[in-house]
Here is the input.
Amino acid sequence: MEFNQIRYFTEAAEKMHFALAAEALGVAQPSLSRGIQQLEKELGVSLFDRSNKRRLRLTAGGRAFLPHAQAALAQLALGRRKAQNTASGLAGHLSVGALESAMERREFLETLALMQTKHPGITLEIIDDHSGGLAEKITAGVIDLAVCRDDAAFSGHEELSVKKLFEDELILALPFRHPLAAKEKITAADLAGKKIILAPQKTSPAFHAAVRTFLKNQPHRVEECSHFYTAQRLAEAGLGIAFLPASYENQCSGRLVCRHLAEPPVSAVYTVCREEEHFFALTAFLELLRSKFAQSGSSSGEQCTPK
Here is the structure.
């Protein structure tokens, strides 16, 4: 069943005349007639009663088929408009998966606001997940863009474009009465023997590795915690010292204080998307996001192409 066959049928049904329908569509009448006959053959029913040469009429089958044919053409027209609007940026949908810590960044939030202002027809779907979950979602095609750590997770995925967005300095959160709270900067030696609250290696291997590198061979106890908000609450309750991304520093107040580290470790955050799927909404979002980080002096233009 072809688009033109349906178009010929609906026009002939409206005009109740093959010649007038052909003229309205700008095609030769024999072509229109052949198209309708082929459609009838595929359906296995006659759509028109041709017994009266002076007056064309729909058969019962034709009357039953007509609303569906009209609905099909309307849906195709709607799809064409949506495709055109999406390509031009007037409409569209973009799913972005991002780390909780990335969502805390002013640059990320300002990008969301700018997208709404500049491209109001584009619907944004924002998904919060850890790096491991985001890696699974972007490789499976569940999301259009991932903002995550752990570029090593994409090794071998040559279809993905992996680009460093910014480097996240790591800080400490600890109870305000903790002896180390009096220090401006804390060293790895200061943490010897202390209980450390840390993102799990399974879900955040790059963050975990950055902390392990900083601690070197200092003896310590580790408690893993998947969410930085929970890590803050555990530290606030005196259950350990939490490593956090620097974007959480403004959340340290009351019984919880944040302190910087001497020779602070950093953990890079990347944008990851499919190389061949740079449609308008994705391109516009990436341009705004990278521009915001560049303005803040946090951006890195380093390109990582998985091997």
Remarks:
- The chain has three domains: 3-88, 92-166+268-304, 168-267.
- The longest strand covers residues 160-175.
- Residues 301-307 have pLDDT under 50 and may be disordered.
